[in-house]
Fold this sequence. Notes:
single chain; alpha/beta
Amino acid sequence: xxxxxxxxxxxxxxxxxxVVVFIALLFSVGDLDCFRGGYTLTVIFDSAAGLVPxxxxxxxxxxxxxxxxVEWYRPENSDELKVKVVIWLEDQVVVRExxxxxxxxxxxxxxxYVDISPGSPDSPAVQPGxxxxxxxxxxxxxxxxxxxxxxxxxxxxxxxxxxxxDEEAVASFKSTLAHIDSMVAELDALxxxxxxxxxxxxxxxxxxxxxxxxxxxxxxxIGSKVEDVVDYVGPRIESTMExxxxxxxxxxxxxxxxxxxxxxxxxxxxxxGKLIYDDRTYEELNQSLEKAKELLDAIIExxxxxxxxxxx
Length: 312
């Protein structure tokens, strides 16, 4: 009896331990959400791209929930068939109106999951139970098909290239390489023979370059001296020009006065004008001069008559 009771106790303990291990295993893989809160959202996709229930839901790259169901969905008044995906999210996850919900592919095993971007803080939050629309992504099968077509095209191109390089083409290519090698050898020999002349030419070029550099230095020194002379003579030339301008102005003034005098004489104004252009004035002046000459001659002939001098 005691032995039977001991066996029952062992069996009970084993069952309890198995249940505990099973529950712990469920919690460790994160698939047991019945003891947690959270909320659900319904996302409409054009294609599920191989997404299955219990797939992961990532929010900003962090596990935030699971896919509860994936089923067909036909909108009202439309014949187009879409996919309705119900996802469960933790309470702290906030999906906003401008958040992007998309089906992504992860790893080499092409594991599908739902990825949600946080969105902008100013955008309103999506209320639990709402229906939102997700983005359609390219499936792994389509990627493989595209890669396969690219590989086929690359294979065809390589085949065409291999056909181009047949035995005749290879022989021609080798002949061309041999000809190029011969030309290189001849060019090398020519360079070796011309090396002394090339060296002499280079020395002459260096000498000419040195002479040009010296001539350039001389020109620089001459230019510097010319600048010094210009700096010394420039102010004096400017002062001389100022004097010339002043003298020119005075000459212009004198010429203007002379023009006025000539104009007055030409018009017969003044003594000189009357003397030149008035015959009567000329005759009177001539008579006065003759009388003065006669008087002077008379004084010279008989000074006592005109000069009364007394000596004390």
